[in-house]
Amino acid sequence: MQVAKDLQYKSAYFNLVFKSNTVSVGLWENLGFQRVAILEKAARLKGLPEGVLDTAYGYWFDLETLEERYLWKSIA
User: Fold this and answer.
1) From 3.30.70.270, 3.40.50.150, 3.40.50.880, 3.40.630.30, which CATH number describes the 2-67 domain?
2) Residues 6+ apart with CB under 8 A from 71
3) Fewer Cβ neighbours under 10 Å: the N or C end of the chain?
């Protein structure tokens, strides 16, 4: 995320995080991304019951307020 900020990106967006993928949802939220979009009945995914469509989330991150934990650490 520091590289994106260094390239003068102001924010980052990741789409299609499926509700049924709780590990992925947790990852994006633990990284500080905010859920800003909900798309109901977005996809028919393997492993879900027949006829059930999963919800997809979109996550946004404000790179202008990038925290210290995301910055490169010098080894020297």
Assistant:
1) 3.40.630.30
2) 2
3) C
Backbone angles phi, psi at 35, to 5 degrees: -75, 120
Of 54, 31, 32, nearest to 44 by C-alpha is 54
Closest CA to 17 of 26, 8, 9: 26
Residues of the chain whose pLDDT is less than 70? 72-76
Question: Sheet harboring 54-62: ordered strands across?
Answer: 11-18, 54-62, 34-43
For the record, the structure tokens of 54 come out as 């999963």
